[in-house]
Amino acid sequence: MSTQVSEDLDERARFRRLRREVFQMRGFHAEERAIVDAEGRSTAVLHVGTGTATLLIHGGVGVTAEWAPLAGRLSGRVLIPDRPGFGLSDPRDLRARGFRRDSADWVAGLLDGLGLDRVELVAGSMGGFVAIAFATAHPHRVQRLVLAGAAGGLFPDPGLFLRLWATPGIGAAVSRMMPRDTESVRRKAFGGYLAHPERVPDDILEVALAAMRMPGWAAANREILREVTTLRGWRPEMRLDDDLVGSGVRTAFVVGEGDALMTVASARALGERMPQAEVYVIEDAGHIPHLDQPEAVAAAIEAGRD
After folding, report:
1. Torsion angle of alpha carbons 92, 94, 96, 99, nearest 10°?
2. DSSP-assigned letter for residue 275
3. What is the CB-side half-sphere exposure of residue 9 using CA atoms within 13 A?
4. Can you tell me whether residue 80 is helix, strand or coil?
5. Which are the contacts of 305, defined by CB distance < 8 A and separation ≥ 6?
6. Residue pair 89/81 in contact by the 8 Å Cβ criterion
7. Which residues contact 270 (CB under 8 A, 6 or more apart)?
8. Distance CA 70, CA 88 (A)
């Protein structure tokens, strides 16, 4: 076994252990399952419980641990996958079908592998883009869509850092500036997206740092960003507003009042165009409201259930 392969296996083992501990510390004693698609690609899924299935899709930081403070507060069957190319899931080549179609296909294949016809989707940020891509392609399979924080595709500007990361040449330099310790994760990965980055527990930061050290993490992020944005902003053809409105999918916008990417007013305006939409405002929260105020976000999710 080569030194590099051995180091990669060590990184995976460390990530798996830290991730398991961060959920268990918060009462979410999940099993890990690998769902393998027809092309042999594996998706790692944490799951626990029975009953109505809720699928939590993480955002662009690329770590399922963002759901750790929330997951144990939800009823029913809760499933948390690593998105392709992140955590313990195999990457997918986006060049053949593009990120939007590939996202819809990935979720559809994941549900098939789990034996689920319909699911409640909870997602935020770039995970929100994935969830909307699936919901608009397969609306009959979505019991409800919950967007916890501004979803990719619903706002025009992802921010200068992500636009630079997507830019050829510059992006490679940005990748070399990734956080090297937990405090830099707090500052760089969460600082601009939370109302209170200082409150993020150290063990969640440790999992995020371990995720960023996994082979392929930076490449997966850059490939997605090149698909959806340029130096000028979000690609117009990758906007999802109109398709979401026309999908008829019951949708809940759970918006942090301080979300820098999508204001409460913008969420309400979009919701007014939809036949089945609710808007929940989470006070003292930013772009990742379930990290700032997990109890309030969990209450909003539970309140809107049938």
Report:
1. 120
2. S
3. 6
4. strand
5. 52, 120, 144
6. yes
7. 154, 241, 244, 245, 253, 277
8. 21
Interatomic CA distance for residues 252 and 238, integer angstroms: 21
* 212 residue type, one letter: M
Q: Which domains does the chain have, with CATH numbers?
A: 3-303 (3.40.50.1820)
What the block records as the tokens of 97 is 């079908």
Pairing between β-strand 53-57 and β-strand 77-81 as defined by DSSP bridges: parallel
Question: What is the residue-wise DSSP string for 94-108?
Answer: TTTTHHHHHHHHHHH
Q: How far separated are the first and last CA of the chain, in Å rounded?
A: 53
CA distance 15 to 89: 12
What are the pLDDT tens digits along the chain (306 aa)? 555 556 567 889 999 999 999 999 999 999 999 999 989 999 999 999 999 999 999 998 778 999 999 999 999 999 999 999 999 999 998 888 899 999 999 999 999 999 999 999 999 999 999 999 999 999 999 999 999 999 999 998 888 888 887 888 777 777 777 788 999 999 988 998 999 999 999 999 999 999 998 888 888 888 899 889 988 889 999 999 999 999 999 999 999 999 999 999 999 999 999 989 999 999 999 999 999 999 999 999 999 776
Question: Do the beta carbons of residue 109 and residue 81 sit within 8 Å?
Answer: no
- Tokens 């296996």 found at: 9
Phi, psi of 104 (to 5 degrees): -60, -40
